[in-house]
Design a protein that fits this description.
heterodimer, A: about 500 residues, alpha+beta, Cytochrome-c3 Hydrogenase, chain B, 2 domains, 3-stranded antiparallel sheet, B: about 170 residues, Rossmann fold, 5-stranded parallel sheet, 7 helices
């Protein structure tokens, strides 16, 4: 039994790639993952989650694979958006997508050796025992050859206060010809950890997957648990979650617009953005006790009704609204700033679509896709708003999408404040039966966030799949940066605002 | 535009921040400018920090970044975050130390000249925090580098980071 909007379609292994290609024509590929379900029916399973444009339904193609033959025909040549998912499955389960154009490992660095960490018979202690920190990574970077081509290696420890990752630029003069990122330095084994901490404590872990998306992640996680258990939370709890997701979007988007100023060396703009962000962070702390909105989401509901502090929220947001309006006027009047944003870091609609872009990055390239509208959840079904799109796909468009979404979040919060929300804060969850599964999702500040949970027989999850927005958007950076100059890289990077930890898990 | 800068920067006081800082330090913020006497001898009233993310969720980094905003503005106390470990006095580690970052953390530590101080920032850097039993982490900064002090919190607020850095520096100077 699964929630109403999830339709599982069993496909035979030889047909899988053809079927996926067929679906990808009119559906968005939301995520693709594997699960080791040998304890349930003796098989590994691969799932590909599609959702048709303009319809609140998930078509989930699934196939069984036997342990002695874990190979299938790769779908990447037909559905490019699947390329990282398939490499991930190969690293984590040893499932071989034959014919995949990229044979390099993605997640597991050299020190791990030959181990498939998400198989159920592999234990955390076993993986740790096999680790040899002195083993070389041996990752082969893509080589660009030709006269005057040189390489710039950067990272994993970067110059600023940011997360770790390695970038290998191939440049001709100042122009970047190719960027080959090597990520997953912060891979911690989060998905495996979910399986041992249990459903309830998983919410705390979900909050710590990506710092500034704490609330969106925990909302999607809790939603997945609640749907797996077959319960529905009260309208009041839904409204609280909706309100806080929008508060999270506000401080992220305003902070991001400010950070883009750091990318152009525009100190005054950066400082103004930082002040507005700090006011929102301080509001977060007064409302929830945490600047990162942690501790509110629990499986089955929320711990606090923030609507009790409606006056506080309204008065702070009034000030921020005015400040943000002035801030945007100031930025758009500063030609030295906007001139650097226009035409920089172009991501075409076609590439964004084929590579599975999500969030503001997709909407700035003309893809009208917002999970809040495509799959109305929480209180979003009763709110009227648009998915804000721009057509050009440059840094400027990504800033403007965020500006429009900030305005939209203000009005969503206003309309939530005008209503009464009834019901209990928390709903109790009974034991979840083995084999039940469900999706949980929301639109976080960086884009769509998906969780898929399946229950095992021991009252714990058999598999928790986390698909953060950054996992979809990281590969796009190489396309957007092509042909730009090296000094514009920080700016283009900031316009995507990608999470390393959320992607590396 | 200049009118804009003038009005907003010289006439508008930050709405929050100073009270929060005072609440943590229990007094005027200016008193930090002098710093602990013995520390002055070693670092001459200026502390340069190299922050290393060793697998953090990024919340600790954002709080360190916030220390540079006009509300906290730690550079007025002589504290700065630097790009190169060669320029640093303090190494501030965040995150539970993922296996991928263990080597980079060690190398960064070795690149910092003596005398140096290592601070583990956040619950993860202390003992692994929520990530303690995950297969990809080493359960805290102390597993790779010698730690002089811890800053508790998940994440610690900017004011708490500031306060703790000063406390740790003071006790390290003794």
């Amino acid at each position: 039994m699964s929630p109403e909007n999830e339709k599982y379609i069993e496909v035979s292994a030889p047909d899988f790639s053809r079927k996926c290609a067929e679906y990808s024509r009119r559906h968005f590929l939301r995520m693709m993952f594997a699960a080791d379900e040998r304890e349930l029916d003796g098989h590994f399973r691969v799932y590909a989650v599609f959702s048709p444009a303009g319809c609140d339904r998930f078509d989930i193609l699934t196939m069984k694979l036997k342990e002695d033959n874990l190979s299938y025909e790769s779908i990447t040549p037909l559905v490019p958006a699947a390329h990282w998912y398939e490499r991930e499955m190969r690293d984590m389960f040893g499932i071989i997508p034959s014919g995949h154009p990229d044979a390099r490992p993605l997640i597991m660095h050299g020190m791990y050796g030959d181990v498939y960490p998400l198989r159920r018979d592999v234990t955390a202690a076993g993986i740790k025992n096999a680790v040899d920190l002195s083993r070389e990574d041996g990752y082969s970077f893509m080589n660009v050859k030709g006269e005057g081509v040189y390489e710039i290696p950067v990272g994993p420890v970067h110059a600023g206060i940011i997360e770790p990752g390695h970038f290998r630029f191939s440049a001709v003069g100042e122009t970047i010809y190719h960027l080959d990122p090597r990520l997953f330095f912060t891979h911690k084994g989060t998905e495996k950890l979910f399986e041992s901490v249990g459903f309830e404590k998983g919410a705390q872990l979900a909050e710590r997957i990506s710092g500034v998306s704490s609330f969106s992640h925990s909302s999607a996680y809790c939603m997945a648990v609640e749907r797996t258990a077959g319960i529905e939370i009260s309208p009041r709890a839904k409204a609280v979650r909706t309100l806080i997701i929008e508060l999270e979007r506000l401080y992220n988007h305003i902070g991001d617009i400010g950070n883009m100023c750091a990318g152009t060396g525009f100190a005054v703009g950066y400082a103004k953005g930082a002040i507005l962000k700090e006011e929102l962070m301080a509001l977060n702390e007064r409302l929830t006790g945490s600047r990162y909105l942690r501790g509110i989401n629990v499986t089955g509901g929320v711990t606090r009704d923030v609507f009790e502090d409606a006056d506080e929220i309204i008065s702070v947001l009034d000030g921020v609204k005015r400040g943000f309006k002035d801030f945007m006027e100031f930025l758009l009047d500063s030609v030295s700033h906007t001139e650097r944003l226009e035409g920089t870091g172009l991501l075409s609609r076609e590439i964004a679509l084929r590579m599975g872009a999500t969030g503001p990055a997709a909407r700035a390239s003309g893809i009208s896709d917002d999970i809040r509208r495509a799959h109305p959840h929480l209180s979003y079904g009763s709110l009227i708003f648009e998915a804000h799109t721009y057509l050009k796909g440059d840094v400027y468009s990504r800033m403007m999408v965020r500006r429009d979404e900030v305005e939209c979040s203000f009005s969503i919060i206003d309309s939530l404040m005008e209503r009464r929300h009834e019901g209990e804060l928390g709903t109790s969850i009974n034991e979840i039966m083995a084999g039940r599964s469900a999706l949980g999702y929301t639109e976080g500040p960086r884009g769509s966030i998906f969780y898929w949970i399946k229950a095992a027989g021991d009252g714990k999850p058999l598999r928790v799949k986390v698909r953060s927005a950054s996992f979809c958007n990281w590969p796009l950076l190489s396309y957007a940066i092509h042909g730009n100059i090296v000094p514009d890289f920080p700016l283009v990077n900031k316009s995507f605002n990608l999470s390393y930890s959320g992607c590396d898990l | 535009m200049f009118r804009h800068i003038f009005l907003n920067f010289f006439c508008k006081k930050p709405a929050i921040g100073m009270d929060a800082i005072r609440a943590v330090t229990g007094g005027a913020t200016g008193e930090w400018a002098g710093g602990p006497a013995r520390l002055d001898a070693a670092f001459r009233r200026s502390i340069r920090i190299r922050q290393v993310d060793a697998g953090s969720c990024n919340a600790c980094e954002w709080e360190c970044t916030a220390l540079g905003n006009p509300i906290y503005d730690v550079s007025r106390f002589g504290i700065d975050f630097v790009a190169s470990p060669r320029h640093a006095d303090v190494i501030l580690v965040t995150g539970p130390v993922s296996l991928g970052m263990a080597g980079a953390l060690k190398k960064t530590y070795l690149a910092v000249p003596e005398p140096k101080i290592v601070i583990a920032c956040g619950d993860c850097a202390k003992d692994g925090g929520v990530y303690r039993d995950a297969y990809g982490v080493l359960d805290g900064a102390a597993s790779v580098v010698p730690v002089d002090g811890y800053i508790p919190g998940c994440p610690p607020s900017p004011a708490a980071i500031m306060k703790c850095i000063m406390d740790i520096l003071e006790s390290a100077a003794k």
